[in-house]
Records
---
Amino acid sequence: MKNIVLFGPPGAGKGTQANFLKETYDLVHISTGDVFRYNIKNQTDLGLLAKSYMDKGELVPDQVTVDMLGDVVSRTPQANGFIFDGFPRNIVQAEALDEILKTYAAEVNAMIALEVDDEILVKRLLKRGETSGRPDDSSEEIVRNRIEIYYKETAILKSYYEKKGKYHGVDGVGDIEAITQRLNAVIDAL
Ligand code: AMP
């Protein structure tokens, strides 16, 4: 199993790039944000709960998120590997992911971070909000709150994976195709 955490602030391009990587490396793409949005659309209990946090740009509580992630992973135990997009978002979740993968005798092989300047992120997210219909992309205040939460709570994961020798930073600005090639180079060298 090859398991990759695709990392970076909101708007860094994780979802876009995950769609290419999953084809190239035959990996299952799990975006926790997408799973929450699917549940909101289908008005499940999980969706209702998640929505109250997501609309403000805040993180959904760890236990809820970790249980959901474990559940999604368990649906394709035979997978060649996973791309985790938007998960983990803090140390509690990173440790939980280690435990979940242990049950499949697997581990996170690499965290690859897409590095993008904040002001570019704000522009990208507001632009996406014009067509995505995502409430959390539609106001500059919420977008900036999400980026702030990333720095306050999530960015610390860089050192968590650096200590394990698993952190790889990639320039996330430029042509989509050029960025994909940078990511491929990192994965090919693993
Ligand atoms: P994303 O699609 O990754 O930008 O996530 C959108 C929103 O979903 C976030 O702002 C959070 O409210 C929620 N969310 C997604 N992934 C997580 C996670 N790993 N932990 C907590 N909340 C999450």
---
Amino acid sequence: MAHKPLLATVLGQRQERPPIWIMRQAGRYLPEYREIRANVRNFLELCYTPDLATEVTLQPLRRFDLDAAILFSDILVIPDALGQSVRFAQGEGPVLEPVDPQIITQLRREGALEHLAPVLETVRRLRAALAPEKTLIGFCGSPWTVATYMIGGRGSTDQAAARLFALRHPEAFAALIDILVATSIDYLVAQFEAGADVVQLFESWALNLDDSAFAERVIEPNRRIVEGVRARVPNAPIIGFPRGAAGNLAKYAALTGVNALGLDYATPLDFAAKHLPDTLPVQGNLDPLRLVAGGKQLDERVDQIVSAFANRPHIFNLGHGIVPETPIEHVAALVDRVKNG
Ligand code: CP3
């Protein structure tokens, strides 16, 4: 098998310079993405059309020397596949018909993988199209993060609806998490079978939880997914990204069994040295707004991040998704600086 620097890093091998990919690297900061987006009726149609999803996935790799492609899809295709109404309103973000405790029993797991067949077809096409040294990343949303959208019906800053639901309806909440764990395992195994090299678990809302809720809603479901996937894909390489986990990061890494830990941009650079085993690969963690502003502060921060993680396996990334305002020249400058110093 060809050497894939990014995959090798997830598996624990430090590289001379860190490999790089960018969360949300396919998206609205690219004019060629906006053009394709303008010609589909809605965002989910883009996710479920393998021709277009393959094209959009590859767009950033044509412009920049990135080490990985990430499957173009969304974390909310799972609620959609379970039969919940999901739409992406222009300028509003995702809007879902909120689940109540009764409806949870009506979510249908059986047809979910069939519904996601077009996404798996995209993975197969990407596998065939990608140069051998590029890593293909699959993904899903982690159960708690997906549940916050399923229960709240939209994004929120404090996830209050889902936090209250979990406390008031513990049995219905546990049933929802069970459905999401089982569906995510099937979906990730299918992504590996279709050709993904590694998968990332996006726990974008790992913040706002006390440590007991964090253990129950974040660590345990992610641990079950890692265990369930590896039972069917032995040694499956998995990156966990618990955004906002802060003081819970070390526990998350140790107890879930992920190969590599994604760090958000608020995580101090000396955190890994102080709290993580030096063999544990880390990924991150540039503030996306530094990439918008560009210039000297960007170069200086990139150098700080690279040198802070120089003695361990490190994948360079942003500490959250790239934003639409990002100038393309800044992305090119970032990739060049990470690769060539
Ligand atoms: O390039 C890639 O990273 C792959 C594709 C990808 C998308 N969403 C495409 C997308 C990935 C990995 C995601 C993950 C995702 N989706 C997360 C986790 C990562 C994070 O940012 O925290 C979350 C929370 C979602 C849910 C979601 N999807 C929201 C809140 C939004 C609206 C906000 C926004 O950025 O527009 C989306 C829509 C979305 N997903 C877009 C893209 C390119 C923009 C939609 C459009 O083009 O109209």
